[in-house]
Every structure is written in C-alpha cells, then in structure tokens.
Amino acid sequence: MVSSEPSEKLRILLMPFFVTSHIGPFTDLAVGLAVAGAGAVEPTVAVTPANVAVVRSALERHSPAASGLVKVVTYPFPRVDGLAPGVENLSAAGGDAWRIDAAAIDESLTRPAQEALIRERLPDAVISDIHFFWNTVVAAELGVPCATFVVTGPFATLTMGRLIDAVVNGDGSEPESSQEVVIRGFPWPEIRIPVTEMPEFLRCRSGELNPCVEALRRCFGQVMNTFFELEQPFCEVLVREGHAKRAYFVAPLSPPPPLAGVSTFVEPCFRWLASKPSCSVLYICFGSFAAISADQLRELALGLEASGQPFLWVVRADGWAPPDGWEERVGEKGMLVRGWAPQTKILAHPAVGAFLSHCGSSSVLEAVTAGLPMLTWPLVFDQFLEERLVTDVLRIGEKVWDGPRSTRYEEREVVPAEAVARAVATFLEPGGAGEAARGRARDLAAKAHAAVAKGGSSYRDLERLVDDLIEARAAAGGMTSLSAVPAKMSGNNADGV
To answer: Which principal EC class is assigned to this enzyme (predicted)?
Structure first.
C-alpha cells in the first residue's frame, strides 16, 4: 500500500521512445502512477515537441481528473541529416523511419538532450524506454532510481534475450547461415523462429542491443506492459533467472470503456457496427508504423470481399484505393475507415467478433482485454514473437498465412486473396477455431479486469512500484539536492506544455 505519511510528492520523469506505440503506453503508465499514488505522485512525460500531440491524444482516453495529474515537458529532437523538420515519430516518418530509429539509439545524438533534461529537472525517479539505455547511468550519477518500462511482456522479452544469446554468443555463425533458431529450456517445449522472422537488428547488427540488455539488468526494476495472470510462467522465469532486480506487471493500463456505453459513440463506424449481429464483425488494423504494399492491400481487399464476412478495416496507407467496383460490391457488408480509428472502443463493441492484427504488443493486450480472438499477420520488430504468444501459448488466435514471411519489406511475399478469404471464413464460421479461441480470450479478459481492480495483481504492482520508489528516495536522503548535480550543465530548454 502506498505510504500515507506526509511528504513531498514523488516526482517521476517518464521518457518514451519516438513512436506512438511506446508513447501511448508510457502516458497510460503516467496516469496509472498518479492514480496509484493517491496524490503523492507527480508524473511527467518527456517527449520531443512534435510528439506532444501523441501524449495529449493518449490522455484523452482517460478521465479529465486522471489525465490532469500528468505533466508534459519537451526536449529537442536530435538533428538528423535528410529528415524534414517536425518529423520526430516513427509512425509518421514513412520511408524516413529508419533515420529516426538510427538517431534514437545513437547515444551521441539523443543522450545529450535527455541527460540535460534529467539534470535540470532533478526528478526523484526516472522511468525510461529500453532504447535509452544511457539514462540508467545518468540517473545513477544523480543518485536516483531508474526503472525501465518495457512495452512488451516477459514472453517476448525473454524470447528476444534468448535469440540475442543464440546469435551473439552462439557458434559465431552469421544469422543467415541457417533456416531457423530453436529456443529450448523455456517454460515451453521449444520455440522455433525462422531467420526471416527475426528482428532486423539480429539479422544484420547482431551485437547492437547488448547495452540495452545490460541496462535492463542494472536498472532499478522492469515495469512490464502485461498482467501476471496472462504470462505467469514467463513472469516467474524473468524473476527467478535474475533478468530483473524487481519486476512489476501493471497492465492493462488503459481498459476499454464499459460495454453499456460503447454503442453510444457518434463516429460513423459505430453507427455501422450497431447494425450488425453480435460477434459477427472482423476488425482489421495493422498499427501505425509498418508499410504494406499496394499489391498486398489489393489482395487483402479481395480476400475480405470473398470471405463473405462483415468487416471493419482501418487503412492508413495514403493514396491507396481499393480495386474498381470493390466498395459497390461490398456495400454494407464491410466498412473502410481511413486514418485513425478509436481502436479500444471498437474492440469493446459487442458486434466485433475477432481482430485481424499485426500483433503489436499493445494490440495484443487490447484484444485480450476485450476478450477477442485474433487472426495474426505480423510485419516487423517483435511482432512475430508476439504472434507465438497468441497462437502457441495462449491459443487465442491463428495465423492468416503459413507461407514464407519476413520482417523485411522487400522479402515479403504477397499473401493471395484466396488465402485471406479461406482464413477469415474458416476462423469465423460457427463452431470453428475462432469460437474456441473466443472462449479462452474471454477467460483472459475476466482476469485482465480482475488484475486492475482494487486488490488485483496489477493494482498491487502499481502500488508496490510507487512504494519502492518512495523508499528509494528516502534511502537516498529525501529530495535530490542541487548540490548533487555536476557543474556541467547543458543549455537544454525544457518547456512545460
């Protein structure tokens, strides 16, 4: 339980990576900390100027009272050759996303502004993204704890660690020298990862994440975007094998709205959903970052049409148009939404029966929380690992395509319309695999809601995190004093927003 003794507020500075799928969960964590602290915590989210809108959008998902407890400050985005001014988010960078990624993990480019901000604000604690490994060192020099917020869960984190060991500390062979990596000695019989489905950094820059792995082990603790009951065997391994000094499993941080109120939203997609039977609609969304070719979008469109199932499809590809006559043929059977859609609200709608997803960690958690089965179509990063959690461990979903797949855009084969139609129709047919997966997903949804209720596992872990940080501040002698700051100070201007 959070200490009730009077004291100065615990000032926590949160620093997410430059991508919407990290900024959103970090913002949700800030709200969770403020609520768990019951007035004793002052969380501040630190982002670059162009990402302030992403934080504001995430705050709007919460009540005004809760979101009003979170502050936002900015620091300069690093100068990157070839990147247009104001492009500071992987989700909005298009073909220049690699430039942001490279700059973000380049210590010489990103650390100076972040370090200057930490030293100027002198927080009582820092919660950093795994990419910014240097913040553990900066915080240690100031004598304040630095925890790492990992937006994935322990399954993906541990699998990634074992892949790094296999590639970096294996027999010295190049990652491309074999067809797959087999992971054994896990709380699972074995996990097979084809080389083409491994994260890109392991395929071409095998040792680059070593500093991040070391920072995870050195930091005050790992805060993970999962709940204990969802990944229990892997939560236990994370702690038992010493991968974290402390572990806090705190999700879901942004629960969906109550079912009773979902049908009252005014967006056109909700009016369309209101006309559909319960559990009849397939929701399709591939997240905010990875690109999909026009040829693949065409095949997906034709496959959805041929499946005969109602669908709500969110498309973020600028300039793409469906095949001629497609919208007329589909009619009221399907709905195409361009740009942004309120995903958590859509997933909570009673008409939605399944989710075709890229398996981003937040999307997987949102599907679980809504009790929805999944059709999986991973594209990049850790999404192929998250897919195995969905299909093999939790058994709440199935792959759309069993053919060759790759994390590299140029290597991807186009999944034909026939395969899409077959996967969708089979999964959603009465008595099919989707029905059994839905039953398991609903059981997990009940556990997710119990986890964040008073006394639940995530509720307790959030309180424990606040208590541990308050104790760490007390052990360090209370508030960090200005005398603890080295004489060198940068000219960073942190703006309250």
So the answer is: transferase
